[in-house]
Specification:
By secondary structure, the protein is mainly β. It has a single domain (about 5-669), classed as Beta Barrel (Maltoporin, Chain A), CATH 2.40.170. The protein contains 5 helices and 36 strands. The chain has a 22-stranded antiparallel barrel. A 5-stranded mixed β-sheet has the order 3-9-10-7-8. β30 (about 550-560) and β31 form a beta hairpin. The radius of gyration is 25 Å and the shape is globular. The two termini are about 50 Å apart.
Length: about 675
């Protein structure tokens, strides 16, 4: 698709969105609730009030999308894409051209630190996720290592989501079908409440699918899954203002796929079992009358265990990583002279990663037995002057100590400063500027990995072996961002709401960790080789009249390797996303249309494949009767990629799925 058509589509779609709102019919319209987030600043604020690039995908939007994968949940957020292709177990989030361990991922506050070659990073079932917060841009000043690209926080649902006020027991049963891959799933949730003092939720989900087909009718090999997941989550309020929440999430996947699952290779096919357990206990004290203490602490554990058995030969590889951690923060609020208000947040985080790899029961040096301990201290002050100007300075110090069998222990540290200045230029319009530094500590595998990388037939050149490099430096970045946020009511008609967020950024990244492959010398070593510059522009617009609603997103990102003087391979294509919908309130029906259009990506490193532009079109309809015999039921129908477009995203070696018809039915009791 030509770039002119791409721009015209975005322009016409935006005008259609706004004009549709102006012509909306008068009706009893639903209340539009304010979205809140704590991810960007660690203090609860309305999303539209945050001077940063943050997006929240709430429960309503997740129900519209009927997601089967993480990609389904995140797709369409400006600056966010997925690498690794359509195999669910291989996909990894990419934020502003940075992926892998350069994006920090959390589930209920628990770090997801797993990374091992081609095996993916995040393992969860979307049916057990209630909301997603995405912070785009460096977040190390609050979150430490791994937040060079940004932070993604997945939150599981709680019992209150399934219980009406005064209801002591309830739940939800659901089932659904996706035509592409013959995916079927079923879910069962039970929730109970003991007055205002305690509640508990239990949920289990099963889904099974065959291989997907792309838009050309060609099977995407080894893309099926069989997944069983469960969640137990409870909340206890022993005293007023005190709350303890505990959650335990289990994910189990069985499938057959290549050991290099994020590539188009069909060599080394293995039967793979993926097991992940995530547990967290959160304690919070929030007394609105006490400005000195707003305390939150999370104790967590995350364990990933992957077993791969080669179909040919039966070789068995086990890959395990366990993370234990605690993250605690307090916010103290105080004022000077009635015109200067402060929200001072300070805290500490400690976590320990322990990994082990085995092959046929023996130690596997490619994933060496090793440990890492990290301690981080952070402080941030949100200073507001005259209810108009805001200054947010922040600073974090991290120290990490690593050890591995047969290797010398190593220590390192990093300091991550950040400062944001914001001003309310008009009522509901805020401009801001941010400078932030971030870092990523080398992984244990990058530091200590050894053993065979790949074999070469014949005596020359020799087989290739990984070489440890315990002297690796952390990757670091300096990010500059300017932006504007808009939150205005009664724009085109009484009762409507317009929100918008636009940002320009430039991220200078140093000491990129890459593989130095010496074919003739027979070695592969992880080294700090790359300096990169990534810059771009993002736009998000939302409009809601209560009946008409919609959104528009746009991202334009450019990234270059300054050492090799060529484009980076990890930059997603320019993309426009449009969604327009209407609530037929008298029938309890919601219907809409979604467009995703991407420009051709020809800025690739020498030797890499270019990708063409494409546009996909989706429709969705939901019916949720609020009275009568079907009260509590919900019916969701969608068709994605209506015209069965065949295309490949530039961050993938495999084509994306073709047309998919989705149907989901649930009943809340």
């Amino acid at each position: 698709m030509g770039w002119g058509i791409f721009r015209a589509t975005a322009t016409v779609s935006a005008l259609a969105l706004l004009s549709g709102g102006a012509a909306a019919q008068e009706a009893a319209e639903p209340v539009m609730l304010e979205q809140m987030t704590v991810t960007a600043t660690r203090t609860e604020r309305p999303v539209t009030d945050v001077p940063a690039s943050v997006t929240v995908i709430d429960r309503e939007e997740l129900e519209r999308r009927q997601p089967a994968t993480i990609d389904d949940m995140l797709r369409g957020i400006p600056g966010v894409d997925m690498s690794g292709g359509p195999r669910a177990m291989a996909a990894e989030p990419n934020i502003r051209g940075l992926s892998g361990e350069r994006v920090q991922v959390r589930i209920d506050g628990a770090r997801q630190n797993f990374s091992s070659g081609h095996k993916g990073r995040v393992f969860l079932d979307p049916a057990l996720i209630g909301r997603v917060d995405v912070l785009r841009g460096p977040g190390s000043a609050l979150y430490g290592s791994g937040a060079i690209g940004g932070v993604i926080e997945f939150t599981t649902p709680s019992a209150d989501w399934f219980l009406d006020p005064g209801q002591t027991f309830g739940g939800e049963i659901g089932t659904g079908y996706h035509s592409n891959g013959d995916l079927w799933f079923g879910s069962l949730t039970g929730a109970a409440r003991a007055g205002d003092s305690a509640d508990i939720l239990g949920s289990v989900v099963y889904r099974r699918s065959n291989d997907l087909e792309d838009g050309h009718g060609v099977e995407i090999p080894l893309s099926g899954d069989e997944i069983v997941s469960g969640l137990v989550k409870g909340t206890w309020r022993p005293l007023e203002f005190h709350e303890v929440t505990a959650s335990y999430l289990v994910f189990n996947d069985d499938n057959r796929l290549p050991t290099a699952a994020n590539t188009d290779s069909t060599d080394n096919i293995a039967d793979r079992e993926t097991r992940q357990q995530t547990g967290s206990v959160n304690y919070a004290f929030r007394d609105p009358s006490n400005p000195w203490i707003d305390f939150d602490a999370t104790l967590y554990m995350n364990s990933v265990d992957i077993r791969e058995v080669l179909v040919a030969g039966g070789r068995t590889d086990d890959t395990e990583l366990t993370t234990y951690g605690i993250d605690a923060a307090n916010t103290t609020r105080f004022a000077f002279g009635g015109s200067v208000e402060n929200a001072l947040t300070y805290g500490v985080e400690y976590y320990r990663d322990s990994q082990e790899g085995r092959r046929d029961g023996a130690p596997r040096p490619q994933y060496p037995e090793s440990d890492q301990d990290v301690v981080g201290l952070f402080i941030q002050d949100e200073i507001t002057f005259f209810d108009r100007f805001t200054l947010i300075p922040g600073l974090r110090y991290d120290r990490f100590d690593r050890s591995a069998a047969g290797e010398e222990s190593a220590s390192d540290s990093a300091v991550s400063p950040k400062i944001t200045a914001a001003v309310d230029v008009l009522d509901g319009v805020t401009a801001y500027a941010t400078y932030a530094e971030a870092f990523r500590a080398p992984s244990l595998t990058e530091l200590y990995g050894s053993g065979l990388h790949f074999a070469i037939p014949g005596p020359f050149p020799p087989d290739n072996f990984f070489q440890p490099n315990p002297d690796l430096e952390p990757e670091s970045s300096e990010n500059k961002e300017i932006g504007i946020t808009v939150d205005r009511d009664d724009v085109l008609r009484e009762g409507d709401r317009l929100t918008a967020r636009a940002a320009y950024f430039r991220n200078d990244v140093e000491d990129f960790i890459d593989m130095d492959v010496d074919i003739m010398g027979g070695t592969t070593t992880k080294v700090n080789v790359q300096e990169a510059q990534i810059e771009g522009f993002e736009l998000e617009v939302g409009y809601d009249t209560g009946t008409w609603f919609g959104s528009l997103g746009y991202a334009h990102i450019r990234g270059d390797d300054l050492i090799e003087d060529e484009p980076l391979a990890t930059i997603p294509a320019d993309q426009v996303t449009l969604m327009v919908g209407h609530r037929f309130i008298e029938w309890d029906v919601e219907a809409g249309y979604r467009l995703i259009a991407a420009r051709a990506q020809d800025r690739v490193p020498a030797g890499d494949r270019e990708t063409g532009g494409y546009a996909t079109h989706d429709i969705f309809v939901s019916w949720a009767p609020d009275e009568g015999r079907l009260e509590g039921a919900r019916f969701n129908f969608a068709v994605e990629n209506i015209f069965d477009k065949g295309y490949r995203r530039n961050l993938s070696q495999l084509n994306d799925p073709g047309r998919t018809i989705k149907l989901a039915v649930s009943y809340q009791f």
